[in-house]
Design brief:
The strands form two sheets. Strands 1-2-3-5-4 form a five-stranded antiparallel sheet. Strands 6-7-8-10-9 form a five-stranded antiparallel sheet, covered by helices on one side. By secondary structure, it is α+β, with helices and mostly antiparallel strands. It has helices at residues 3-19, 57-72, 93-105, 152-167, 186-196, 199-215; strands at residues 21-26, 37-42, 45-49, 75-76, 83-85, 117-120, 127-135, 138-146, 169-173, 176-179. β2 (37-42) and β3 (45-49) form a beta hairpin. The radius of gyration is 19 Å and the shape is globular.
């Protein structure tokens, strides 16, 4: 092993010690030289990091962090350019994987939609809608649909199952879910809606990404180029 390779491995170890576990790895950033970017988590703080040393990379990490804030309702860590956290004690690990992928993939100037949480169903003519409200000590989201579907109630239960799986949410009633922290996270709900309406296709995508990560070391986010 060359001295350079040994030094590089030491740097990887130091970053993990400093920023924690690597929760998600995006192998290619389409908006910045196809560098690999990782999201590390320690003590509730999410850190966007890359081993790339390309000019302008710090600004790019800031852009990705800002999209985590805009898309996922996270809050930036004061005095940093690449760190953010949720206002609740939960890490929301599963939805944050999707959040990181979106934050890297979106254009730096992308502005997420606001207003009602609605989306066209991918399996029927229904328009899916999510409405949040306070019930007791937690914020609950009701899932409904408007329009034609062969078996609307069954379809809504499938969408709810998608929220439970990809959002790590709890099923409150047949068509109602809540985050485990019990707090309001409209940004995460909006982000999860396209995945939750199409659970089988997302499973295939997740499996493909996992396989790609096993086959190539570029997925590790340790590229220095």
């Amino acid at each position: 092993m060359s001295d350079g390779r040994h030094a590089f491995k030491s740097t990887v170890s130091q970053i993990i010690d400093k920023y924690g576990t690597c929760l998600e790895l995006v192998s290619m950033d389409p908006n910045f030289h196809n560098i690999s970017v990782g999201l590390y988590v320690k003590a509730g703080i999410c850190t966007v990091w890359t081993f790339s040393q390309k000019e302008g990379v710090e600004d790019r990490l800031r852009q990705i962090r800002n999209q985590l804030v805009a898309l996922g309702d996270m809050v930036p860590i004061e005095g940093t350019h690449n760190q953010a956290r949720f206002t609740c004690p939960e890490g929301h690990s599963r939805p944050v994987k999707f959040l990181m992928s979106q934050a890297v993939g979106k254009q730096p100037d992308y502005v997420p939609p606001s207003g009602e949480l609605t989306i066209k169903d991918s399996k029927s003519d229904m328009l899916l809608r999510v409405d949040g409200n306070s019930r007791g000590d937690r914020w609950v989201y009701d899932v409904s649909g408007k329009g034609q579907a062969p078996k609307p109630e069954l379809r809504l239960r499938m969408v709810v199952a998608g929220f439970v799986r990809y959002g790590e949410m709890e099923k409150v009633e047949d068509n109602s879910v809540a985050f485990q922290c019990g707090m309001r996270h409209d940004g995460l709900m909006r982000l999860l809606m396209p995945y939750s309406r199409n659970i089988s296709s997302v499973e295939t995508m997740v499996e493909a990404e996992a396989m790609r990560g096993q086959m190539t070391t570029s997925t590790l986010g340790f590229s220095q180029t």
